[in-house]
Amino acid sequence: MNERKPLVLVVDDEEANRRMLQMMLGAENYRVALAADGPRALESAAAEPPDLVLLDVMMPGMDGFEVAARLKAAPATRHVPIIMVTALDDRDSRLQGLKAGAEDFLAKPVDRAELTVRVRNLLKLKEYGDFLADHNRILEEKVRERTRELTASYRETILTLNRAAAYKDEETGAHVARISFYTVEIAAALGMDAEFRDTIHYASPMHDVGKIAIPDAILGKPGKFEPHEWEIMKTHATMGAKLIAGGNSPYLKMGAEIALGHHERWDGGGYPAGLAGEAIPLAARIMQICDVYDALRSKRPYKPAFEHTRALEIILKGDGRTMPGHFDPAVLDAFGKRAERCAEIHAEHADETAR
Amino acid sequence: MSGPDAGQPARILIADDEPLNRDLMALLVRALGHEPAFANDGPAALAAAAERPPDLVLLDVMMPGMDGFEVARRLKAHEATRGVPVVIVSALDDAQSRLKGLAAGAEDFLSRPVDRSELAARVRNLLRLKRLQDELAAQAATLEHRVRLRTEELDRGQREAIQALLRVAAHKDDRGGAHVKRIGM
C-alpha cells in the first residue's frame, strides 16, 4: 500500500542499546532515527513524525512515560504507535506504560523474534489505520473515476436539454451560461455543498423550458400583454415543471423545482402558486434573484439595460416593480456578498450584439 | 483492566493441556472484557476453530501429541482460519520456540508467567489489526458495489433526461394556443 520505507524512532540513553536496535531494524529494511534522550526524541518526532517509536523507560531527565504521554498529546504524533522497552520483571512499568498510551512492550534484553513481530504488527496497524482513515475519500474518487464517461455523457444530455429549453427564450445562450454561474455563486455564499452547486449549475438553465409551450404570438409580443395573454404567459412555470419532472435525476428534479418556483416571491406575491417563504424550494429562491438581476441588466422592449450598480440598487432597495421583500433575506444577503462576482460573470458572458 | 478502546467483546480460544493454565488465562481474558473458549489439545483447538473461527487464539506450545507450532501451521493453512491472529504462549527463556512460532506463522508471543499488561496490549493490538484487515478486504467489494449503484443512478438519470428532451422537442413543433389546453392547463 505504501512504497515508502517505514521510519522507526529508537529512544535510549545507552548507546550500545541504540546501536543494537538500529542494526536489527536495519536488517528488516526499516529506516531508523536515533535519540539519546526524551527532549531529543520529541524534537525528532516533531521534525519528521515516525511510523513507530521504540522507547526506553528508564532515562535520566525525562523518562519514557513522560515522552509517551507527550507524543500522545501532540496531534501530529498521536497516532504513532509506541513500544516501551522495559526490564523483564518490571510489571509496574508496563502498567504505567499502558496508562501513558503505549501500544505494546518489549523486554530487555530484546529478543529478535519478538522485536520482529511486534514492530511488524504495529506498523501494519498504523498503515491500515491511516489508509482506512482516508478510505471514504479514496473510495469516492475511485467511484468517480470508474463512472467518469457515463457522467460526461449524462451531462451532455442535460446540456442538450438546456439548449432546447432556451430555444424560445427571448434571451441568448449567454444568458443561460450566466444563470448557471450566478446560481453557483449564490449557492456557495449560502454555504451549500459541492453536490448542490453542481446540481444547480446544470439545473438552473432549464428554468424557462416551459416557454416552449407558449405561442409565439404571445411570447414575441412587443407591447404589454392583455390579461388573458398574461395568464397564458404565466403557465410557462407549471408547463416547464411538467415537461421535466417525474424522474429521480437530481438535475431534472431541481430543474423542475426551479421551473415551477422561479417566479414565486418570498412575500407570497408571485406565481403560479403564490407560495411564500420556505415553501418555495431554495434552488428556486436562488434562481429568482439571479433571473431578476440578469433581466435588469438586459434590454427589454419596455426598459433599457441597467448598469450593475443600478441593478444592484433596485434589488437591494426596490424600485416599485421589484421589492426587497420579494426575496428570501438569506439569499438577498448572499447575493449582496457576491454581487461583484455576478457583475464579472455578466461581463465575461456578454450577449452577442450581432444577433 | 481493559484496553483503552477494547471495543466489542471478542471470542478468544485458549488452547492449553494444563487445566490450571487454562483457568488462569480465562480469568485474565474475562478481566479484559472478552469471552474465553477452550481446547485441551491441538486437534481440539483445530476442531473448535473450524467449527466457529474465534477472534484470536492463545496457543500453548508444549502440548502432548500435536504441539502449538503444528496447530499454528494448520490454522494458517486453512482459508477459514488464516486470518485469525495466533499468539504463541511459551516459557520466558525459550528463544527457540519464538523462532519456530514465527516460522509457523504466529502473529505474536506471550511469555509465562503471563503479565496482565502484556496480554492486554497484545490482545488489543491484534484484534484491532484483524478488524482493520477485514475492513480492507471488504473495501474491494464495496468499491464494486458502489460503482454499480452509481452506474445505475447515472443511467437512469440519463434516460430521464432524454425523455424530457423528447417531450420538449415534441412541443417545439406544436405551436398555437390549442395545445396549451390539451396539456391540461
What is the ordering of alpha helices and beta strands of chain A? EHEHEHEHEHHHHHHHHHHHHH
Query: Gyration radius of chain A, to the nearest Å?
Result: 33 Å
Mean pLDDT of chain B: 86
Low-confidence runs of chain B (pLDDT<50, min 5 residues)?
Answer: 1-6, 175-185
Let me know the number of strands of chain A. 5
What does this structure look like?
The complex is a heterodimer of chains A (355) and B (185). Chain A is α/β, with parallel strands linked by helices and 355 residues long. Chain A is built from 17 helices and 5 strands. Chain A has a 5-stranded parallel sheet with strand order 2-1-3-4-5, sandwiched between helices. The radius of gyration of chain A is 33 Å and the shape is elongated. The relative contact order of chain A is 0.07. Chain B contains 6 helices and 5 strands. In chain B, α1 links the parallel β1 (11-15) and β2 (35-39). Chain B starts with 10 loop residues before the first strand and ends with a helix. The chains are: A alpha/beta (355), B alpha/beta (185). At the A-B interface, α4, β5, α5, α6 and α7 of A face α4, β5, α5 and α6 of B.
Please outline the helices and strands.
The complex is a heterodimer of chains A (355) and B (185).
Chain A: E1 7-11, H1 15-27, E2 31-35, H2 38-47, E3 52-56, H3 64-73, E4 82-87, H4 91-100, E5 104-108, H5 112-133, H6 135-146, H7 148-165, H8 173-189, H9 194-203, H10 216-219, H11 227-234, H12 236-244, H13 250-261, H14 282-297, H15 308-317, H16 329-337, H17 339-348
Helix pairs in contact in A: 2-3, 8-9, 8-14, 8-16, 8-17, 9-13, 12-13, 13-14, 14-15
Chain B: E1 11-15, H1 19-31, E2 35-39, H2 42-51, E3 56-60, H3 68-77, E4 86-91, H4 95-104, E5 108-112, H5 116-172, H6 178-183
Parallel strand pairs in B: 1-2, 1-3, 3-4, 4-5
